[in-house]
Amino acid sequence: MMQSRFETAAWYATIGELLVADDDQSIANTLIDAIGHAVVHNGTCLLAFHPDAPPEVLHHTLEPEGETHYVDRYLAGPYLLDPLYELSQRADKPSICRFRDATPDRFHSSEYYRQYCDRTHLKDEMDFLIDVDGGSTLALVVGRRKTRFSKAELGRLVLIEPVVRAAMTRIWQKWLGHSTRRKPDRGIHQRLTECYENFGDAVLTQREREITQLLLRGHSTKSVARVLDIAPGTVMVHKRNLFGKLGITSQYELFSKFIQDLSEA
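Below the sequence we write its predicted structure tokens.
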């Protein structure tokens, strides 16, 4: 009989190391090793999403240049458009989900996807989510670059979820105790959020701003219509009008204009 991945000496050795690890980075590194016994993956990132502050990155396996592009730029404001961030703010969030199942219907053709997701070359992504104190949510991203996770691999990730959640909780507790931890700037988050919610308010109507926000997140005309409970033709009229008022002709220009406003905020 073929030996299970969870019946090997290496698996039990890793769990033993996870039990004795005593600081957040050691726990995180060992957790990633444990996940690697369950599935082959190409990188992880552990984030804390807050209701009133920018996200914190507790641990990641990105190379230095990747950290500059995917972490620093992300934290400067575009996280507001991230489907994972939006999901983390929901009361009915799942404990584990496949990223592609949580995205708007045109997310993969959105400028946010092109600028912040496509360049990671991820083919698939599984996310573990857990609520912690203060209304915050921890999210552990497990990415795959060449192929999608198989049904069997997804099953193994579900199987080790209790181990992952326990380790994530320990990492968070250790992270909070860091004397060198820089607490997230709530003022910056408030300014960024106000920029997002009021984008174009000098020229756009309330309805046009609502449609703009959904377009920035990657919703199609039909999806916007469903969310707002209006006709697709009405959305098209609003879209044409808001593009004219903003002096733009494409989704790319809409995204660029938004990012420019974020940088000024």
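The longest strand covers residues 124-131.
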